[in-house]
Amino acid sequence: EDQVTQSPEALRLQEGESSSLNCSYTVSGLRGLFWYRQDPGKGPEFLFTLYSAGEEKEKERLKATLTKKESFLHITAPKPEDSATYLCAVQGASSGSARQLTFGSGTQLTVLP
Amino acid sequence: KAGVTQTPRYLIKTRGQQVTLSCSPISGHRSVSWYQQTPGQGLQFLFEYFSETQRNKGNFPGRFSGRQFSNSRSEMNVSTLELGDSALYLCASSLLGASTDTQYFGPGTRLTVL
């Protein structure tokens, strides 16, 4: 069974204070690791997909990295508008050809001005 | 390009009733997945449809069902509603339904069961 654990559960940062969110996963045959951002009352918004260990992707102040056991979402010089819940999800080989993501419980990020 | 749309956005039902939620995927996307999101359990997979066929189903009772139409639009139905069914129901679509495809989510339907 695929499992995803995110830490910390909540993180409060001052504007400009860089930090990292962690996503540890256990999956049989990783097909993809996905990062989403979710604002209150809205659906998750896609950020990144990582497919293999060593891969990195960047978008504005965010950078996602992947190893064989975990992924990090690095936030550089965050702004208050980066406040949201960040979700990590994996697609494993156990679901065959079906699209079935296993999600972590998320990290609630608050960036204070 | 329009994103995933879900209707209705909000629903209030009473125990024992049934409900139908609708999802229109991004144009050209053929795979539609449904998820339930609650504060206690987080996001949990319900089922996925591709070319009108259910390919996988999560660990939910048979009261939860769905279908997909030839235009890729999908509906999910919950019968005999229970208080614990109160949740945000999210629909996600992907282009070809490959396991490496990115899933794009809709805004969700907030279901409250009284």
Question: How would you describe this structure in keywords?
Answer:
heterodimer, A: 113 residues, mainly beta, six-stranded mixed β-sheet, 0% helix, B: 114 residues, seven-stranded mixed β-sheet, four-stranded antiparallel β-sheet, 11 strands
- The string of secondary-structure elements of chain B, in order, is EEEEEEEEEEE
Average pLDDT, all residues of chain B? 94
Radius of gyration of chain A over alpha carbons? Answer: 14 Å
- Give the overall form of chain A: globular
Oligomeric assembly: heterodimer
- The succession of helices and strands of chain A, N to C, reads EEEEEEEEEEE
Helix content of chain B: under 10%
Describe the structure.
The complex is a heterodimer of chains A (113) and B (114). Chain A is mainly β. Chain A contains no helices and eleven strands. In chain A, a hairpin with a 6-residue loop joins strand 4 (30-38) and strand 5 (45-50). Chain B is an all-beta fold. The mean pLDDT of chain B is 94. The termini of chain B are far apart. Chain B is 0% helix and 53% strand. Chain B has strands at residues 5-7, 10-13, 19-24, 31-38, 42-50, 53-57, 64-68, 74-78, 87-94, 104-105, 109-113. The interface between A and B is medium-sized, with 28 and 29 residues.
Question: What's the short story on this structure?
Answer:
The complex is a heterodimer of chains A (113) and B (114). Chain A has 113 residues and is an all-beta fold.
Write the layout of secondary structure elements.
The complex is a heterodimer of chains A (113) and B (114).
Chain A: E1 3-7, E2 10-14, E3 19-26, E4 30-38, E5 45-50, E6 56-59, E7 62-66, E8 70-75, E9 84-92, E10 102-103, E11 107-112
Parallel strand pairs in A: 2-11
Antiparallel strand pairs in A: 1-3, 3-8, 4-5, 4-9, 6-7, 7-8, 9-10, 9-11
Chain B: E1 5-7, E2 10-13, E3 19-24, E4 31-38, E5 42-50, E6 53-57, E7 64-68, E8 74-78, E9 87-94, E10 104-105, E11 109-113
Parallel strand pairs in B: 2-11
Antiparallel strand pairs in B: 1-3, 3-8, 4-5, 4-9, 5-6, 7-8, 9-10, 9-11
